[in-house]
Design goal:
- The chain has about 325 residues and is α/β, with parallel strands linked by helices.
- The protein has twelve helices and ten strands.
- It folds into two domains: about 160 residues, 3-Layer(aba) Sandwich (D-Maltodextrin-Binding Protein, domain 2), CATH 3.40.190; about 120 residues, D-Maltodextrin-Binding Protein, domain 2, CATH 3.40.190.10.
- Helix content is about 50%, strand content about 20%.
- Helix 2 packs across helix 9 and helix 4 packs across helix 12.
- It is globular.
- The termini are far apart.
- Keywords: Signal.
- This is Tripartite tricarboxylate transporter substrate binding protein.
Length: about 325
């Protein structure tokens, strides 16, 4: 018997062992998801984040025969839900719809947070971005943004504007506008967009600064009047609404984004699976139309591109928040 003949069974045994060792990992990946996926929504029902999260969860369920269940965990400007997601076991069965407020603004506003978005979460899939819109009740005396400016200059600190909460991008958009226009409007924070919406519709606050998705239904119903959007260019959903920059405040540009994150340490193949599923949805005419109908702009990215955006905005908003002087205990 030759040496090669003797070694042949040993080589086969080693090869079989190697395949067997890798088989569970492949089986686990192939089976994902083998049970329902919880999508944490860090704001109350009805706001922009909730609307987009439920749309993504529904379409992922329909397109892939998965079960993706939205779970609202609201409070503290979205930071409670993000913190819960960051603490979850990194198996791919707890995902979260994050957005700029709680991922890159809140860490510089709150004196103590239990999570670092760059270290404790992994970017999976960018979903959409949206400008912020300044709205007022349809019957308001303010017909244009210029009307607001004149009233604010005539009586400082008497014009009120509501927002979904302290420390959100939307709150800061109002403060940045105060600074750019050299006026003083009084901020009234709420626990989510719906509460702020109810008060502006009732006339209890003069204005609301809102994401476009949060305000879109009431704008379409004719109950809210959009005065301006804060992005560099006009919103596809509100083509007749001017930008703040067009009204004389050059380079004014504040917008927000939404995307899916998982706890850091989630296996890369699961991140890749989720990213591919979300991006496939975003490429369909039906999903694009649904997102645009809500006032947002669909935009897909790889996990690496979305992670780079997270890091860039995280550093950028450090300076913006520090310049504003805003802090939250």
């Amino acid at each position: 018997m030759t040496r090669s003949t003797l070694l042949r069974p040993l080589a086969f045994a080693l090869a079989f062992t190697a395949v067997a060792a890798t088989a569970p990992a492949h089986a686990q990946t192939a089976a994902y998801p083998a049970k329902p996926i919880r999508m944490v929504v860090p704001f109350p029902p009805g706001g922009g984040t909730d609307i987009l999260a439920r749309l993504v969860a529904q379409k992922l369920t329909e397109a892939n025969h998965w079960t993706v269940v939205p779970d609202n965990r609201a409070g503290a400007g979205g930071t409670i839900g993000i913190a819960e997601a960051a603490r979850a076991t990194p198996t791919g069965y707890d995902i979260v719809m994050g957005q700029k407020d709680n991922m890159v603004v809140a860490p510089w506003l709150y004196k103590s947070l239990s999570y670092n978005p760059v270290k404790d979460l992994t970017a999976v899939a960018h979903v959409a971005y949206t400008p912020v819109v300044i709205v007022t009740q349809a019957n308001s005396k303010f017909k244009t943004l210029d009307d607001v400016l004149k009233a604010a200059r005539a009586a400082p600190d008497t014009i009120t504007y509501g927002s979904p909460g302290n420390g959100t991008t939307i709150h800061l958009a109002g403060e940045i506008f105060n600074g750019a226009a050299k006026i003083k409007m009084r901020h009234v924070p709420y626990k989510g967009s719906n509460a702020a919406m109810m008060d502006v519709l009732a006339g209890n606050v003069d204005l609301m600064v809102s994401s476009v998705p949060s305000a879109m239904a009431q704008i379409k119903a004719g109950k809210l009047r959009p005065l301006a959007v804060t992005s560099a260019k006009r919103s596809t959903s509100l083509p007749d609404t001017p930008t703040v920059a067009e009204l004389g405040y050059k380079d004014f540009d504040v917008s927000t984004w939404y995307g899916v994150f998982v706890p850091a340490g989630t296996p890369k193949d699961i991140v890749t699976t989720l990213n591919a599923a979300v991006n496939k949805l975003l490429a369909t005419p039906e999903m694009k139309a649904a997102i645009i109908a809500q006032g947002a702009e669909p935009q897909s990215m790889s996990p690496e591109q979305f992670g780079a955006l997270l890091k860039t905005d995280y550093e950028k908003w450090k300076g913006i928040v520090q310049a504003s002087g805003a802090t939250i205990e």
